[in-house]
């Protein structure tokens, strides 16, 4: 992981494309430096490349040229919350060891504590295929809780509050 003042994310002369063709034209041309501890928000019109930027940092776009460095681990949430057909707890833990104190802090921070009372078996409730038993806002908060619980060095969050109502959004942010 990066230390205070050190760049956690650096992209130098990065050119990226969604195409693997040898003559692919870059759809994203990027220079970026984010220091450890900085909060950076990328805003723009629909289709302006915000999600592509995150995908490039994740290595999901074809890197045509340039240098990309991310120091430490990454936690990512997409616009469409990915939920497994397992318990709410297992969706948050995602294979990480259970830490009761940190888990409960995470649920509180992600406004999920009150939802546990609505679920038949609390956090041991099976969520169902693609989170069918949860509202869109609950799915988004479970995905956010998964990222938080991972204790990553770098967090890439792609519009995680879009499915959350204003009251819950103000609690989260």
TrEMBL record:
This is ABC transporter domain-containing protein. It is a multi-pass membrane protein. Residues 11-172 form the ABC transporter domain. PANTHER family: ABC TRANSPORTER, ATP-BINDING CASSETTE SUB-FAMILY C. Gene3D superfamilies: P-loop containing nucleotide triphosphate hydrolases. PROSITE patterns: ABC_TRANSPORTER_1, ABC_TRANSPORTER_2. Keywords: ATP-binding, Membrane, Nucleotide-binding, Transmembrane, Transmembrane helix, Transport. Pfam families: ABC_tran (PF00005).
């Amino acid at each position: 992981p990066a230390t205070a003042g050190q760049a956690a994310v650096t992209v130098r002369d990065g050119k990226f494309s969604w195409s693997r063709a040898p003559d692919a034209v870059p759809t994203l041309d990027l220079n970026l430096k984010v220091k450890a501890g900085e909060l950076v928000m990328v805003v723009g019109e629909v289709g302006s490349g915000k999600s592509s930027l995150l995908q490039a940092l994740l290595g999901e776009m074809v890197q045509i040229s340039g240098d990309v460095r991310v120091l430490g681990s990454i936690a990512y949430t997409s616009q469409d919350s990915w939920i497994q057909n397992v318990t709410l707890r297992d969706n948050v833990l995602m294979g990480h060891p259970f830490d009761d104190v940190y888990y409960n802090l995470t649920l509180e921070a992600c406004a999920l504590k009150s939802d546990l009372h609505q679920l038949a078996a609390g956090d041991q409730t099976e969520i169902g295929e693609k989170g069918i038993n949860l509202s869109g806002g609950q799915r988004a908060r479970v995905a956010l809780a998964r990222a938080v619980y991972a204790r990553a060095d770098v967090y890439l969050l792609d519009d995680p509050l879009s499915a959350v109502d204003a009251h819950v959004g103000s609690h989260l942010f």
